[in-house]
From TrEMBL:
Ranges of Low complexity composition bias in the record: 66-77
Name of protein: CpaF family protein
CDD domains, per database record: VirB11-like_ATPase
Domain of life where this protein originates: Bacteria
Stretches assigned to the Bacterial type II secretion system protein E domain: 142-423
Native organism: Virgibacillus siamensis
Length: 496
């Protein structure tokens, strides 16, 4: 069937074949024309087919969120005010009567203390949920206050305190508003002091920002008034109780088994790896997993703002930066620690995050015999990471020509691993890129593995797969010299 005949059959109700008088020429002429009279008759006799309403499928502007009324807020305030006052009386009683007692004994007697508060204050109504109040008071005494249950919940990956009345949690890559609340700003500050005090750090009006960590290594950032207008703001990025392994990342879909084998080979061959990505993309988790591939016989020096890496090797030296004291002196930066680590006879240097002038010292270390180093940095792509490294080197205060900086980068780095947090909340390694060489003034990059997106599902999940590009890296022979051999098929996409 010709294209013309298909068109005729498909539009038979709108088009009518008109056969004119035969002509003398050999070719038969067929024309299609719309008959106006027949069209009117058809409109009367046969109803037009209804056109489906697709207005819901059109992408429209979202409605503007209206501001929450103060009435709802005041109602919640009235409901919780009595409980807050009751808990305040309990704490005052403990400080007054049981200040020198062991915390465990105080918790054991908590029920009796609460009953005694009721007897001393008959105006208090016993309409509270005593078991819940006892649980909250116990958390204040032994844990981190109201957010303790969130920190103990394995499904929660991040906790965000926006003042005393709003606490958000991240589950499965999505932020949700919880029903957790603090009494007031002082309550948030008390929890914050409990976090930073054991680390020898402080947070007050003269030093209103701090980076810290919990005992399990979870990262903590806090900022307080007058800089934070909503009240003391705490951001806690939790780490798993058991560090993730490469098999966990494969199961999560962060990378494929072929990519995992390749990255392990890169670490074994002592290539210099740089992990790039945006905030919350999982860079530190991937760095921790890659660091686990390092031989147990190597001396590893880790350098971080707040010690977060959880390495299982025996010979690990962890270094941590120090903020300035009250006089503004005594600060130790990552750059100072990188310089010092070069005198510590390291086999591997692992830098938690490169963000300024330490990039120059890190590149020089990679170029002067400290192979197998690992580091992370913020960027939107592997190419963007190279540009950011150039900027960070200039932040060291050295007036170096751009070409000299690019030669340092091309000579130091072997592989850039770019990780992204996709729109659906999943975290994936989207590029494993080889840093080849400097051609002219351009650093040549070549993708070895990449994420190929095919679409978005009805549930909003990103659809796609991680595939090799078919290019064998230039350091393949160098890996062989180190005794690491990979099958060439690892760089070829498997046929489905």
């Amino acid at each position: 069937m010709s294209l013309l005949e298909k068109l005729k059959e498909k539009n038979s109700d709108m088009y009518q074949e008109v056969k004119p008088e035969p002509k003398n020429d050999k070719h038969e002429e067929i024309t299609f024309a719309v008959s106006t009279s027949d069209k009117k008759e058809n409109e009367k006799s046969e109803p037009r087919p209804e056109i489906p309403d697709r207005s819901e499928e059109v992408y429209n502007l979202k409605p503007v969120l209206s501001k929450k009324s103060n009435q709802k807020k005041s109602t919640q305030s009235e409901n919780t005010e009595k409980e807050r006052e009751f808990k305040s009386l309990v704490f005052k009683h403990i400080l007054r009567e049981r200040r020198d007692d062991d915390v465990e004994s105080v918790i054991d007697d908590l029920g009796e203390i609460m009953q005694e508060i009721y007897e001393e204050n008959p105006w208090l109504k016993k309409g509270h949920d005593l078991e819940r109040l006892k649980f909250e008071i116990r958390n204040d005494l032994t844990g981190y206050g109201p957010i303790t249950p969130l920190l103990e919940d394995d499904s929660v990956t991040e906790v965000m305190v926006n003042g005393p009345n709003k606490v958000y949690a991240e589950r499965d890559g999505r932020l949700v508003l919880t029903d957790v609340m603090f009494r007031d700003n002082d309550h948030v500050m008390a929890v914050l002091e409990k976090i930073v005090a054991p680390l020898g750090r402080r947070i007050d009006e003269s030093s209103p920002m701090v980076d810290a960590r919990l005992q399990d290594g979870s990262r903590v950032n806090a900022i307080i008034p007058p800089l934070a207008l909503v009240g003391p703001t705490i951001t806690i990025r939790k780490f798993a109780k058991e560090p993730f392994t490469i098999h966990d990342l494969i199961n999560f879909g962060t990378l494929t088994e072929e990519m995992a084998v390749f990255l392990q080979a890169c670490v074994d061959a002592k290539l210099n790896l740089f992990i790039s990505g945006g905030t919350g993309s999982g860079k530190t988790t991937t760095l921790n997993v890659l660091s686990s591939f390092i031989s147990n016989s190597d001396r590893i020096v880790t350098i971080e703002d707040a010690a977060e890496l959880q390495l299982g090797q025996e010979h690990v030296v962890s270094l941590e930066t120090r903020p300035p004291n009250m006089e503004g002196k005594g600060a130790i930066s990552i750059r100072d620690l990188v310089r010092n680590s070069l005198r510590m006879r390291p086999d591997r240097i692992v830098v938690g995050e490169v963000r300024s002038g330490e990039a120059l010292d890190m590149l020089q270390a990679m170029n002067t015999g400290h192979d197998g180093s690992l580091a992370t940095g913020h960027s939107n792509s592997p190419r963007d990471m190279v540009s950011r490294l150039e900027t960070m080197v200039l932040m060291a205060g050295m007036d170096l020509p751009v070409k000299a900086i690019r030669e340092q980068i091309a000579g130091a780095l072997d592989v850039i691993i770019h990780q992204s947090r996709l729109r659906d909340g999943t975290r994936r390694i989207t590029n494993i890129t080889e840093v080849q060489s400097l051609e002219g003034d351009i650093i040549v990059l070549q993708d070895i593995f990449t994420f190929r997106q095919s679409g978005v599902g009805k549930d909003g999940k990103i659809q796609g797969k991680l595939v090799p590009t078919g290019v064998r890296p230039g350091f393949y022979e160098r890996m062989k010299d180190e005794g690491v051999e990979l099958p060439p098929t690892i760089f070829v996409e498997k046929s489905e």
